[in-house]
Amino acid sequence: MQPTPPNDQPAPLLDSGRGGLPAEWAPRRGALRRPVARPRVSAYGGQPAGHRLFRQQLRLGRRGLAIGIDIGGTKVAAGVVDAGGHILREARRSTPGSDPRAVERVIVELVEELSAGARIRSVGIGAAGWMDLDGGTVLFSPHLAWRNEPLRENLQHLLRRPVMLVNDADAAAWAEWRFGAGQGQDRLVCITLGTGIGGAMVMDGHVERGRFGVAGEFGHQIIMPGGHRCECGNRGCWEQYASGNALGREARELALANSPVAQELLKAVDGSAERITGATVTELAIAGDAASRELLEDVGNWLGLGLANLAAALDPGKFVIGGGLCAAGELLVAPARKAFARNLTGRGFRPAADIDLAALGPNAGLIGAADLSRVRSRMHR
Fold first, then answer.
1. Looking at beta carbons, which pairs linking 98-101 to residues 24 or more positions away fall under 8 Å?
2. Distance of CA 373 to the CA centre of its chain
């Protein structure tokens, strides 16, 4: 890669003119590190672009700010994000039920609040669900009543600025590739471990969404035929064995069996086994409880097996693992690495992908949504 020309140096964050930032908008100290590598970049869903276009996008975007919005089942998180991936200002609201119009009003309120005093170039919105390939319509969202909803058109009319829709896992993967643990990777696969398993790919500088826009549903690869019933309707899906829900289910079964090794688990929930969750097990494992660590190791083994399957199909250079379950850190990832190495096709005769924890935490989705909207708006002006 060619060195960045001197005139590509970033503009001061606190520029007082041309729509610059109020002093109180300085990025949080230590929130993110600067990128150490600059792979090729293209718009969401597009094709790889050349180095010259990438540098042009960065140069144009450094003085431009974008707002990223991450819509979850219980909260809507938003932030002003600069071209270095720093969050300069944040705001949150409760998710207003499932009414699409109410959600639109909350988005407009957040954008108006965050854009006061600065020139916002674009808005990126990340949400669980399927978006069309153009990033204009929400085809289906499990948390909200969006069914073939032309959300981009609605919001661009209300906000008078470019808006982009993106799947939340895709947004988080893009953020990790641009600013986090996936920097410098030509083929990156991100896995999000929470209630289920989310997934996304950044390949040769673009988010790979497949032919119909629904790639990345890794959690629904069938890893145990005839196994546990999944919410998707199938049996034996990966997320039934390697997710936060799976961890909680196994712990509850252990406690309900009156196992002597489950005493700490029951003590943590005042004897009510039904209240044990994956977070309960993770907290106890970090505190040193042997049974909880064993349960996490089991989940890590299933995680590594699924990653080996993905490596056989996709051959990435790195897997980045994020999501709430990753609070367990190496208690989860270390057994996953061992299981991955044990089950990798061609092991011993081929390079193996690295497996690392995500770097950006719960803000990855809004950072990625903002940055994707900036890249796309710059390339289509």
1. 98/143, 98/144, 98/145, 99/145, 100/144, 100/145, 100/146, 100/149, 100/151
2. 15
The answer to whether the CB of 89 falls within 8 A of the CB of 370 is: no
Tokens of 19: 């729509």
In this structure, are residues 107 and 114 in contact, taking their beta carbons and an 8 Å threshold?
no
The amino acid at residue 202 is: V
How far apart, in whole angstroms, are the C-alpha atoms of residue 369 and residue 72? 14
Question: By the 8 A CB rule, do 301 and 336 touch?
Answer: yes
Query: Which residue in 354, 244, 351, 225 sits closest to 296, CA to CA?
Result: 244
Locate 293 and state its tokens.
């660590």
Sequence-ordered list of residues with C-beta below 8 angstroms from that of 283, at least 6 positions apart, any chain: 268
CA distance 149 to 261: 50
CA 334/CA 344 separation, integer angstroms: 15
Residues 6+ apart with CB under 8 A from 220: 230, 232, 234, 237, 238, 239
* 34: CB partners within 8 A, 6+ apart: 84
Model confidence pLDDT, tens digit, residues 284-311? 999 999 999 999 999 999 999 999 999 9
Q: Is 141 helix (H, G, I), strand (E, B) or coil?
A: coil
Neighbours of 297 (CB within 10 A): 17
Q: Does position 46 have pLDDT exceeding 90, yes or no?
A: no
Q: How far apart are CA 168 and CA 237, in angstroms?
A: 21
Whether the model pTM is above 0.90: no
The residues with which 275 forms a beta bridge, in sequence order, are none
Rg (CA), the chain: 21
